[in-house]
User: Fold this.
Amino acid sequence: MKFTIAIEPGTKKAAYGVAVPDLPGCFSAGDTVEEAFDNAREAIEAHCEVLAEEGTEIPATKPMSEWQASRDYRGWTWGVIDVPIERFFGPAEKINITVPGRLLKQIDEHAKKLGQTRSGFLTQAALDAMRRER
Assistant:
């Protein structure tokens, strides 16, 4: 799953701070920007593992542009990282569905544009649809 991260500029005395706005309470840091990205990935994995153990759903993600408009993150650097958290929510199951060929082609093209697999895209679309109904 892809997560937006906000990186607070570091100084000679302070590390780069990292916040994951879509996961309230998920923070990290690193002495370099590269280390900040790596540590953010670990923080997201740990945070999501705890959520799964508690039976809590992952909050819905927002577009990066919404977070960038927040005063809380003014002057921060932005990035997106892909973290494989699905394993915390149970083993994957193979299913057989019927989809019109033209639609399947559109799904595959759209998923590819987003850098996702067909399965990842359909899973995320289903989660988003169910969240909207709540």
